[in-house]
């Protein structure tokens, strides 16, 4: 009986001691608690560019993407953050007339550039022909990818007009045509989970036949 009681007491003491040790190791040392965790201020820089025809200057963390600069600092939320990995095209904008996904580019890289977002293409009372065509042909459903689709579509027609070939251009020496195959190939980087691709192609085909 005595041996059993001693064993139980020893086991209880052991459990208490073990718990105390675990709790102690989880607490920061007194030196660390007094000093506090070191913090580093982000490196910032002034960046100036033109957005939708207006000069804008920002003091940004150098890690800020162009997408976040537009959305979080300039409050131009028409440009959407989709995958944030450059794979969906929802964040497409035009930089110096060429389309690009803004989530993969740092804002600090665009000093002096001319940037166009969906807000710069048209307004509800004065829409761009591509915006009007998207409405006419129902080129959207949920609408989340639509700003990127429209900006990319406008840039695609400019690429075709400038004679820039794509992977499906048969004759690299000839001016490409805005064929269905060309439009679908060039727009393949803009994903639409609702599946409005045919309607988008119809809208682009209509605009390709008139000044945009």
From TrEMBL:
GO molecular function: 2 iron, 2 sulfur cluster binding; metal ion binding; oxidoreductase activity, acting on the aldehyde or oxo group of donors
Gene source species: Aureimonas pseudogalii
GO cellular component, one term: periplasmic space
InterPro entries noted in UniProt: 2Fe-2S-bd (IPR002888), 2Fe-2S-bd_dom_sf (IPR036884), 2Fe-2S_ferredoxin-like_sf (IPR036010), 2Fe-2S_ferredoxin-type (IPR001041), 2Fe2S_fd_BS (IPR006058), Aldehyde_Oxdr_Iron-Sulfur (IPR052914), Beta-grasp_dom_sf (IPR012675), TAT_signal (IPR006311)
UniProt-listed PROSITE patterns: 2FE2S_FER_1, 2FE2S_FER_2, TAT
Gene3D superfamilies in alphabetical order: 3.10.20.30, [2Fe-2S]-binding domain
Domain of life the protein comes from: Bacteria
Organism ancestry: Bacteria, Pseudomonadati, Pseudomonadota, Alphaproteobacteria, Hyphomicrobiales
PANTHER family, alphabetized: ALDEHYDE OXIDOREDUCTASE IRON-SULFUR-BINDING SUBUNIT PAOA, OXIDOREDUCTASE, IRON-SULPHUR BINDING SUBUNIT-RELATED-RELATED
Pfam families: Fer2, Fer2_2
Protein name: Xanthine dehydrogenase YagT iron-sulfur-binding subunit
UniProt KW keywords: 2Fe-2S, Iron, Iron-sulfur, Metal-binding, Oxidoreductase
2Fe-2S ferredoxin-type domain boundaries: 45-121
